[in-house]
C-alpha cells in the first residue's frame, strides 16, 4: 500500500479549510492564491446534508489478479501515452501537466470524483510531502497514513454516496 490522505467523515465539519490550504500549495507565478478551484481536494455534501466527503485521490490500488500494476481508471482513460502514470517508488498516480491536453477523459473515468480539471489541465492529489490540507484540518478529519483495504472499501462507498 502507499501513503494517502485518509479522510474520516465522522470528524469533518464541512469547513473547507483543506481545500483552501491545498490551493495555497498550488499557487503559481509567485502569487499566493486562496482559490479552491485549483485545489487537489474538494469537499462535498449529500443532498440531505447528512454526509460530507473530502474527495481526495486514494491512488486506486490494484487488487485484482491479472491486472497490470498501473491499472487505474484515470491512467487507462488517458489518450496521451505516459501523461498519467504510477510512480514505481511511491505507488502514487501522477499527472504530467506539461503533456496533459485537458480532454477530461480521466475526470469522467474516475468514479470517485477525485480528478479535476483546473485551468485546462487534469489535476489530482499526488500526496504532498508535508500536506497543508492535513495541517489545516483542526478536527483532524484528514491524516497522512497508509491505506488498508477496509478503509479503501469504506471511502469508495462514501465517495459514491456524496457526489460533487
In short, what is this structure?
The protein is of the alpha+beta class and 164 residues long.
Verbal overview:
By secondary structure, the chain is of the alpha+beta class. It contains five helices and eight strands, in the order βαββαββαββαβα. A hairpin with a 6-residue loop joins strand 4 (84-86) and strand 5 (93-95).
Give the low-pLDDT segments: none
- Give me the CATH architecture, please: 2-Layer Sandwich
Structural class: alpha+beta
* CATH fold descriptor: Alpha-Beta Plaits
Q: Which helices and strands occur, and which strands form pairs?
A:
Blueprint: E1 3-7, H1 17-25, E2 42-45, E3 52-55, H2 73-77, E4 84-86, E5 93-95, H3 105-109, E6 115-118, E7 121-124, H4 132-136, E8 142-146, H5 149-161
Antiparallel strand pairs: 1-8, 2-3, 4-5, 6-7
Index terms:
single chain; 164 residues; alpha+beta; Alpha-Beta Plaits; two-stranded antiparallel sheet; 8 strands; globular
Amino acid at each position: 500500500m502507499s501513503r494517502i490522505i485518509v479522510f474520516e467523515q465522522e470528524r469533518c465539519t464541512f469547513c473547507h479549510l483543506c481545500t483552501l490550504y491545498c490551493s495555497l500549495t498550488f499557487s503559481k507565478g509567485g502569487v499566493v492564491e486562496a482559490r479552491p478551484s485549483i485545489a487537489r481536494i474538494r469537499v462535498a455534501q449529500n443532498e440531505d446534508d447528512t454526509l460530507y466527503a473530502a474527495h481526495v485521490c486514494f491512488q486506486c490500488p490494484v487488487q485484482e489478479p491479472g491486472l497490470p500494476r498501473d491499472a487505474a481508471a484515470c491512467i487507462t482513460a488517458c489518450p496521451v501515452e505516459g501523461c498519467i502514470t504510477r510512480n514505481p517508488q511511491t505507488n502514487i498516480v501522477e499527472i504530467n501537466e506539461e503533456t496533459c491536453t485537458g480532454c477530461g477523459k480521466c475526470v469522467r473515468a474516475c468514479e470517485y470524483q477525485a480528478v479535476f480539471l483546473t485551468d485546462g489541465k487534469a489535476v489530482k492529489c499526488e500526496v504532498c510531502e508535508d500536506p497543508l490540507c492535513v495541517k489545516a484540518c483542526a478536527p483532524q478529519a484528514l491524516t497522512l497514513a497508509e491505506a488498508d483495504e477496509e478503509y479503501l472499501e469504506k471511502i469508495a462507498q462514501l465517495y459514491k454516496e456524496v457526489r460533487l
